[in-house]
Amino acid sequence: LKTRSIPARDAIAQSLKALDALQAAGCRRFFFKYCSTFDSTDAGNIGPVGDALIDALNARQAIYCPAFP
Hints:
By secondary structure, this protein is mainly α.
């Protein structure tokens, strides 16, 4: 998805829709590739999208790795 520069609520909605589609296709592991330059601000959408995905997956934790190649 190209959610980097859109409002957080729109990025969350698009990401959750994609998650639903992937789950319906049988996927069991999920990776959220956020902006490679990691230039989000407090008003950005990386954290809110990550939180929404964690909640939707009932995950206890997530690892953010800004250095992942």
